[in-house]
Specification:
By secondary structure, the protein is α+β, with helices and mostly antiparallel strands. The chain folds into two domains: about 70 residues, Arc Repressor Mutant, subunit A; about 180 residues, Beta-Lactamase (2-Layer Sandwich), CATH 3.30.450. It has ten helices and eight strands. The strands form two sheets. It has a six-stranded antiparallel β-sheet with strand order 5-4-3-8-7-6, with helices on both faces. A two-stranded antiparallel sheet has the order 1-2. A hairpin with a 5-residue loop joins strand 7 and strand 8. The chain is elongated, with a radius of gyration of 21 Å. The N and C termini lie far apart (about 50 Å).
Amino acid sequence: MRPEADTHEAYGVPAVDRAIRLLRHVGEGKSVTNQSEAARALGINRTTLMRLIASLEAGRLLERAADGEYILGTGFIELAAHRIFSTDLAGAAGPVLNRLAADLGLSCHLGILDGRNVLYVLRQTPNVALVSNIRIGSKLPAHATTMGRIILSGRPVGEIEALYDGVTLSAATGKTATTLPALLSQISTDRARGYAESESAFEAGIDSIAAPVFDGSGLVVAAINVTGPDTAFRAGGPERRIAIRAAVIAAAHDISRRLGFRGEDHHRRAS
């Protein structure tokens, strides 16, 4: 076992160094359920490990999963989301989403793929009574959401199959794809359209439309969506939904252009 004094440089803080090692350990999918074994692997004593876990759990940087194992917590994800917010992606998207929310009177989001989830990294809401309550740092299942589906539509089919191999797909509503063939079919439709649409498919009475965001190389790196009460999508007749759809696609293209994207064939890399 490596001495603890050797794990940090002259100006390092040993306690912080131990916490970082613990977070990396958990982030790599390694167990800390057997605290004696985990303490040996981390080069710290068991009492220190217990205290670190308690402190990080209180700060929402660690949390227990359904199987009892520790995983990185929502507080950690929120910190990561704020870091992403400061990048070119969020910087390019911010003004566009702000304008889109104001023009449509609907909540707008920017999300990226995080495993089999969509991580929400940007949120803009209009000055109206009913707005989205999804916070920056929230994660929702990609297969059940419009942003997740449209990001997945930019991935090769083989990659999607590997990502969901042996995975049970939970149902948000009766409209959610709960098998891999059903998901692939839904994604194929989204890819052909260039957008993903939901009519009460994730939450009853809530509609959503999402479009992909591309980087300079033509890869789908994110998605944006608008969401709100289904009545807001129907007000004024069918033309309202068509107008919302066009605005979302145009906004996504605007963000993509700001990231250096110059192509038109949005899903040429998905075959």
